[in-house]
Amino acid sequence: MISYRHHIVSLVAVFLALAVGVALGGGPLSELGRDDRPASATTRQQRAATSGASFGDEFAAASAAALYDGGLRDHSVSVVTLPGASGDVVSALGAQVEAAGGEIAGTYDVLPALTDPEEKSLVDTLGSQLMTQLGSGAVTSDASTYVRLGQLVGLATATTDLPSEDALSVRQSLAGAELLTSPEDAMRAPIVLVVLGTSTNPAILSGLVAGLSAKASGVVVAGDAAAAAGSGDLAALRSEPAADKVATVDGADTPLGQVTTVLALIRSISVKGGAFGASGSDGAVPLK
Question: What is the pTM of this model?
């Protein structure tokens, strides 16, 4: 049986595709609303892009509740932010998680030292110490520096395989080294949302995501349109093997991208991977 939600998501995919067509100036609505005065190609493209983007955002906001259909009910989400992530975007994503029936278990902020290549020695030393402290099996013994650190972040934020006191110890150690901070009442959640910031070394980002995905049930990495373009963080991550085990979403700085991100979180409960958004190879929105 195809669910009502599947019909809705399919419908929104069609509308979003239409919106993208309008934004590119090639959609069937590109000739509507024009007056008799000649306009330059640039002006027409700007007008179409503004109209298409506005339509997509308004449609996503209006249909979000129906699209979610309570898909995160009884589920919690940990949020991991990279340096430079927008607080407004993080807050908006949190609100959408709640609109889907879920809750934010905790917001964990990656600090600049963790993603600074010049601090690799610190990251490596602390990672080795924590691996020894936690004992056999908690972290992959032959993991590289940042994959190991990603696994430790996963133990601290996601998996419940580790006793809560050990998870707290890991969080305190990472905070003491000024690598990761979290609120005192932070909890762990099997689903993790990673919000990209300004710029992260591609190898470091790939390692962190690979390690995190090994400990969390589902991981979604969200970035803005710039992060998905050219040499942006999301574009770089999507070219790495680590992206096969996580879902990636671009445009998270817009209502449309935020709704798509939460749909990806819902999908991640049962399905890993996928690239979604205007630049996503798997379509505008996740279809179950």
Answer: 0.84
